[in-house]
Amino acid sequence: MSNTPYVEAWLAGPDGHSFYTRTYHATYPKAIAVFVHGFRDHISRHADVHAAFAKRHVTIFAYDLRGYGRTALDPMNRSPDASYGKTTRALEIKDLEWWIKHVSETNKRLPLFLMGFSGGGGLVLVFPTRTEAPPSPETIALLNGVIAISPLVELGVPAPKAARQLVKTVSAVAPTFSFNPPLPPERVSRDPAVVASFAVDPLLKTRAAAQAMYEMLIQGEEMLEAGWKRWPKTLPFIMLWGTANEVNSPKAGIDLFDKIAITDKKLVTYQGALDDLGHEIGDVPERFLDDCVTWIESHLTRQQPPPANTILGR
């Protein structure tokens, strides 16, 4: 019998696109979460964290996003049209809805949560605030809550105006053209082993496609400007930040947290921690896991929408 803490599978997503997936099954599950990894990231890097969730009775379903990880780079199983960075925000949202519905259908008795890290944290915040489908209201209604880990709302170090304009221009005419935006691993974690792993991980690339990069940035800004007003009144969320995050801006994230006008929301901060809370030094990973699981356990019953004739406040 295998000691591997997960079941891996290549599954067909929207338009038959082939995705690399992992499911970390809890022996006695209380809930299940769909996990969305960060920009230029991949799910295998989070194996230890996801296994820890499963030991705490939370099953994790994770997939390498279109354009990243094995979904983009596996020579034997990737789709013929797959390549690194080849994606759009619209496709990411379409894909995410697909996997939420898939997980809901295959785990009907389990409360369902949406969890995203860094760039994926930004995506899970944008997801329920779209002005049109996808996702459908029915898909959003499947969720018991959202877990946003170090979410990208704004970059920790803003891109120079000239560089930003260049990316915008290139994204319009050559969307898959690659840039090499700087992301020193020392900004991701204070753990030397994590930092060293970036140099030898073949699935972590330094390049990023223009369109994917630009859309990710502008949608975070739109969330601060207007998207927060569209957050569903009955969708709880928790936001978790390292106070010293240099990849994404804690200030922008907390500003967004404050703007979203619901009562069932929680903000957790970790003094001195950087972006990857599950791979930090000291007791941060254990506290992070406990904070997430405790919050999930307190939201196993889904909130019900108000009656149709109820007038909601702003």
UniProtKB/TrEMBL annotation:
User: Serine aminopeptidase S33 domain: which residues?
Assistant: 29-276
Q: Note the superkingdom of the native organism.
A: Eukaryota
Q: Which InterPro entries match?
A: AB_hydrolase_fold, Hydrolase_4, MAG_DAG_Lipase
A matching Pfam family: Hydrolase_4
Against Gene3D superfamilies, the record matches this protein to: alpha/beta hydrolase (3.40.50.1820)
Q: What is this protein called in UniProt?
A: Lysophospholipase
Native organism is Lentinus tigrinus ALCF2SS1-6
